[in-house]
Design a protein that fits this description.
Blueprint (H helix, E strand, L loop, with lengths): L8 H7 L6 H11 L4 H20 L7 H22 L1
Length: about 90
Amino acid sequence: MTKRKYRHRRSINVRINWLQPHVDGFKEWLSQRNYSPATIVEVVRLLALWSDWVRATGFEIDTLAVGFAASASVFQVRAFHVLTEA
């Protein structure tokens, strides 16, 4: 199986830089729970996408918990629409 290569790997690190040092602790937490290195890379990529949304909607590190709650409600609404349209 061919490995996927991310052309903009550095951009992920730049995009989640504002969440440091939490990202390193999160990676370690995943590793301790036996997540594969490939899964950790993918989860961090998804974290970078989420962090883009959080920043774009005006949340910062001090309001991260509120941003998380806000994103949960957004994704629940989207999931509901996907399920009801099927």
